[in-house]
Amino acid sequence: MALEEDDNTWILDLETALLDDCSADILYSISKGKNIPECLRAEVWQVCLDVQDKGNQLVLFNEIFDLPEQNLLRDDCQKVVANLGNEDEDKVSVVSDIESILTFYCKSSGVQYEQGNGWIEILLPLISLKLPRSDTYNLFEAIKHRYIPRGCKKNGVVFHVFRLLLLYHDPELCSFLDTMRISPDLYCLSWFQSLFAATCGLPVGLCMWDLYFQKADPFFVFFLALVMIVNAREQILSMKNDSKQTLVDTLSAMPCALEADDVTDFCSLAQYYDLKTPSSFKETLVDTLFSVVSTEEDTRAASISQALCLPVTAHELVNNAAADQDPATECVRFFLVDCRPADQYNAGHLPTAFHLDCNLMLQEPAAFLTAVQGLLSAQRQALAARSAAGGEHLCFLGSGRVEEDQYTHMVVASFLQKHTHYVSMVSGGYKAIHEYFGKDVRASLEDHNPQSCVICSPDSTGEDLDTGRTNSTSIDIFGKISAAMKLKSAEVKGKLFDYIVNPTGSSNTERHVSSSDKLGKRYRSLAPVFSIDDDQEGGQLKLNVCHPVDSTSVASPEEDEHQEVVSISTWLNKPEVVMSFKCHEVKVNGYMYDSHLLVTDSHVYVLRDLPGKRGFAHIVVRRPLSAIVKITSKKKHPELITFKYGVPEGEELVISDMDR
Question: N or C: less crowded end of the chain, CB within 10 Å?
């Protein structure tokens, strides 16, 4: 009896706290993750969502149901409520409440109801609290604004962010789903739209929301979704021979298996993954995803979501190295890998950095593999010694300059291809580190030499990379590219590329990459790149260039808005342009876009014409000629030309990407 009284003491403390105008943090410290008693749940949620003093907003509702989509809304309400176990009289009341709340929300917020957007599913747990309609509305509005990520739609930024999180914690599982062309929006859209209410039973949903609202972290839904997938990894990987739709259906229904008793452990696991994720990733995105933001912040979120791997800020990296953390505590500890060229590393680096020259990967593959083994050995030793430089989490550092970072991306991609856990990259590279230290840079960096440092003395290295011109006047594109490659000096490097490798490492597996994804590889000791089945006739060529698109990041109008817009005539008249061709860009879905293909002595570009903006275009392809390992054309379709790219694997070459 005494033990039972002790067990219920926290409930009395909770009741007292509610009377004393407490906060969500205080409530969480009292409940310690326990389920809230049904009699206190409504009051606890109102405190956690800060709506206890909100008042009756529905007094502004004129009770006129005249939305353009009113019939659709009413039908959806009736269909959902018909499946509930309530009496018929109760069902009529519930339908009335839901339709009134959603109609007023649409009118007051200036938004349109869409079928399947999760709003009705959010309202059902709230209706079960049996509060006055006005209080239910206040709770719904707070949940919608605080906890439902912006852009919860097919191919939305939210799901690219979730994929980065999955790639960080379980790269093999992420690679498998990518190979199956199953992007997160196909299976977890309803999870994010309704905070799992659409797929979990009501008792489970109530228990989960008890913890969720007390934790008061909107980003927590990402970790809940992550646990749901990672915990089922063996089942998912065993379904490699099943159809895509079967796998999607299985993934989508996974929350249905949760029971109320599982919720505490489920949320504890999510908390564990939260602690094992670089905090700056969440901090950078939380305001963008869960509040009204500017176009600039939207652009930043889209940029982060399309990153090769999980981005980390310079601020977190530096503070992480300086922090005195208990090795027994679950947290993020970085092992920093500086991938800049040796001359840049020697001109200044962080004291804890392990140097891995990214140029070795292409120039000396055997030496690169040896260096990687040395890196992994050093990491194990640092972890065993509990050194400040030791950590499970590999964080790669580039220069922050586009001409070098294409090779850093290749190094990072090689680790991802091997399914290495906890791979991240410093946003902005060494440049961001340098700017973070500011005036203290000399005291903070090891061996810093202002005369040789590319940030302190940007003129110390060549910046104009696309200079020079071939004298050839042939209009044969293959001749032009061949001449350009032969004339290319060893120092010339390309622009920025997001290097994405085929996760399976197989050239036979079709893979999609986004239009912003790039792949770079230096042309070195390989078989001839030109493999053309038909002889090309003289005269103007009309090329069809096709770019496979990543299943997790299919090109969308939202992405196009963030691509660089350039003047076509300015680019065509650049002195470094060897030859240009009018062509069509052909997407995998069959759509064709008027475009221009440009060849310089070091790069090939595709400019996609902007409809409605005559004379301007997006740069959709920007690749170094050194990345090309094969150029082919089929006899049946001589106008379709394929550019193939690859990476070295020992003595072999793996074709990892292509443009057609």
Answer: N
Using CA atoms, how far residue 5 sits from 196, 206, 588, 646, in Å, is 34, 25, 66, 68
Q: Specify the domain boundaries for CATH 1.10.472.80 within the chain.
A: 157-198+211-306
Domain with CATH 3.40.250.10 in the chain: 310-443
Residue pair 478/635 in contact by the 8 Å Cβ criterion: no
DSSP state of 650: T
**In angstroms, rounded to a whole number, what is the distance separating the alpha carbons of residues 637 and 534?**
9
Q: Cβ neighbours of residue 354 under 8 Å, at least 6 residues apart?
A: 335, 336, 337, 338, 375, 378, 379, 389
Question: Is domain 1-147 in CATH 1.10.8.1310, yes or no?
Answer: yes
Three-state DSSP state, 566: strand
pLDDT > 90 fraction of the chain, expressed in percent and rounded: 45
Looking at domain 310-443, its CATH architecture is: 3-Layer(aba) Sandwich (3.40)
Cα 267 from Cα 271, distance rounded (Å) = 6
Quote the CA–CA distance of 35 and 22 in Å, as a whole number: 18
| Other CB atoms within 10 A of residue 90 CB | 13
- CATH topology for 157-198+211-306 is Cyclin A; domain 1 (1.10.472)
Residue 339 Cα distances to 52, 344, 355, 411, 466, angstroms: 53, 10, 6, 8, 23
Q: Are 556 and 446 in contact (CB under 8 A)?
A: no
The angle that helices 38-48 and 202-215 make with each other, rounded to 10 degrees, is 40
Question: Start-end ranges of CATH 1.10.8.1310 in the chain?
Answer: 1-147
Buried b (16+ CB within 10 A) or exposed e, 475-493: ebbbbbbbbbbebbeeebb
pLDDT digits (tens, 9 = 90+) for 26-73: 888 898 878 899 999 999 999 999 998 899 999 999 999 999 999 999
CA distances from 551 to 222, 315, 491 (A): 20, 32, 35
Confidence of residue 489 (pLDDT cuts 50, 70, 90): very low
pTM score, whole prediction:
0.69
Q: CA nearest 204: which of 116, 119, 128?
A: 128
CA 160 to chain centre: 4
Alpha-carbon torsion (183, 184, 188, 192), positive or negative = negative
Residues 147 and 581: their CA atoms lie apart, in Å, by: 49
- Beta pairing class for 530-532 and 628-633: parallel
